Amino acid sequence: MAKILKIDGENISVGMDDGSIKEFKKSDCNFKPLINDEVEIFRDNEKVIINKKQTMLENLTNKKPINKVIYCVFALFFGGIGIHKFYAGKNVAGILYLIFCWTFVPSILAFIDFIIGLFKSSDANGNIII
To answer: Cβ contacts of residue 118 below 8 Å, gap of 6+?
Structure first.
């Protein structure tokens, strides 16, 4: 599986399946390349197209996976003020948790979020979708 190893200005270095490293232009990518992105490279006589391989979780939803352990720790210890919601990218819910933290209702909901997060199965990288 090809993987982006280095990004230099307008060039990217890609580690190929055979162990070699090849240079490509950043403009050949149809996404914003980041180091460690797994990619597929397609070539014809004059053009190269680099596509990002998506993980199973990214294919199922348009949401970005988050680390399960970090989410559960945030939900357990800082869930009453909504830190776990901010970490998951749910800013509106995080603000509501913060506004109503004095009622202790967000603390109860955060404990439920902790239990749900704890029992969600994670991918090979330890990520879950919330």
So the answer is: 72
**Pair 116, 129: CB distance under 8 Å:** no
Q: How far is CA 68 from CA 9, 32, 47, 108, 122, in A?
A: 34, 25, 40, 19, 7
Q: Given the structure tokens 């240079």, which residue do they identify?
A: 23
Short-list 52, 69, 66, 73, CA closest to 4: 52
Rg (CA), the chain: 20
**Cα(103)–Cα(107) distance, rounded to whole angstroms?**
9
Alpha-carbon distances of 118 from 45, 107, 123, rounded to whole Å = 50, 16, 13
Residues 46-68: tens digit of each pLDDT:
788 888 876 655 555 567 789 99
pLDDT at 82 over 90: yes
Q: pTM for the complete prediction?
A: 0.57
Q: Which residue matches tokens 């998951």?
A: 88
C-alpha distances out from residue 70 to 8, 55, 64, 73, Å: 31, 20, 15, 5
